[in-house]
Write a structure and sequence with these properties.
alpha/beta, disordered C terminus, Hypothetical Protein Tm841, Chain: A,domain 3, 8 helices, four-stranded parallel beta sheet, Rossmann fold
C-alpha cells in the first residue's frame, strides 16, 4: 500500500509504460478536431496532423473538475492516503483551477502543484516528484522539490503556430522558447534542419551537467528530432537524452534541466 500518490495531466507527455511503472493517475486534456472531442492520449498523432494539414480546426480544453474528482477517488479506493497533483502552468491553462476545485471535495488530502511550465517540463516535475517520494518525502516536501526545480527547466521548440500567440506566416519555422507563460521567438528559420541546429546550440550554451528530452509529434519532424537527439548525445554538457513521442498538439518541444 502506498501512502502518497501522484496525479498529473496528459500534457506531461509521459509514455504509457512509465505511467504504469510509476502508478500515476493521469487526467486527460481534451482535444477537439473539427468539433469532435477526444481525450488527448486517445487521439492518433498522425491522424491529427493529417487533419490539421487538410485545414482542419483544432482546440484544446482543460479537464473538468469531475475528471479530477474521479482520479482522486481512484487513489482513495486504491488505499492511498494523500495525493500530490502536478499540472501544466495556470498561466496557459485552467487545468490547475479544475484540480483545485476537485481537491476541495476529495475524500483524501490533495496538494495541487502549479508547475508554471508546459509539455514534458511537467513530466520532468513528475519524475522528480516520484524520486522524492521514493526517498520518503512528504507532500509538502515534494511540492518544495518541484518549486526549486522549475527555474532550472528550459524548453525550446518549433511550431507552425504557437498556442500562446499567433506566429506570422513570414516567420517560416520559428524556433521558440517558453518563458513566463509565453512563447518567445529565438530565431526564424527556413527548414527543420536549421531549426535543429539552432536548438542544439541553444541547449549547448548552458553550463553544467544537463538532462535533455527530445520529442516529436508530427511524423514530418521525426528525422530532425533524431538528428537533434544525436547531436545532444555527443555534447559533453548533456549527461542524458530522453526521447518521447508527443501526443497530438501544436508543439514540437525539447526540454532540458
Amino acid at each position: 500500500m502506498r501512502s502518497l500518490a501522484l496525479c498529473t495531466d496528459s500534457s506531461a507527455q509521459l509514455p504509457a509504460a512509465l505511467v504504469t511503472a510509476l502508478g500515476l493517475e493521469v487526467v486527460p486534456i481534451s482535444i477537439a478536431v473539427d468539433e469532435l472531442a477526444f481525450d488527448e492520449p486517445d487521439l492518433d498523432v498522425d491522424a491529427f496532423y493529417a487533419a490539421i494539414g487538410a485545414r482542419g480546426r483544432a482546440a484544446t480544453s482543460q479537464p473538468s473538475p469531475g475528471r479530477f474528482a474521479e482520479a482522486y477517488a481512484a487513489a482513495h479506493a486504491r488505499g492511498d492516503s494523500e495525493v500530490v497533483s502536478i499540472h501544466v502552468g495556470s498561466q496557459i491553462s485552467g487545468t490547475v483551477g479544475s484540480a483545485e476545485i476537485a481537491a476541495r471535495e476529495a475524500p483524501l488530502p490533495v496538494t495541487v502543484v502549479d508547475t508554471g511550465t508546459a509539455s514534458f517540463g511537467v513530466g520532468i516535475c513528475v519524475l522528480a516528484a516520484a524520486e522524492a517520494i521514493a526517498a520518503g518525502a512528504s507532500a509538502l516536501e515534494v511540492a518544495d522539490v518541484i518549486e526549486k526545480l522549475v527555474p532550472s527547466i528550459r524548453n525550446v521548440f518549433v511550431a507552425p503556430t504557437a498556442p500562446w500567440g499567433r506566429i506570422p506566416a513570414s516567420a517560416g519555422i520559428p524556433v521558440l522558447s517558453f518563458v513566463a507563460g509565453r512563447a518567445e521567438t529565438l530565431a526564424p528559420t527556413r527548414s527543420l534542419e536549421q531549426s535543429a541546429e539552432i536548438m542544439a546550440a541553444h541547449v549547448g550554451s548552458r553550463s553544467g551537467s544537463l538532462r535533455a528530452a527530445v520529442g516529436h509529434a508530427s511524423v514530418a519532424t521525426a528525422a530532425a528530432a533524431d538528428a537533434l537527439a544525436d547531436t545532444l548525445d555527443r555534447s559533453e554538457a548533456i549527461v542524458e537524452v530522453m526521447r518521447y513521442r508527443a501526443s497530438a498538439r501544436l508543439l514540437e518541444p525539447i526540454q532540458e534541466a
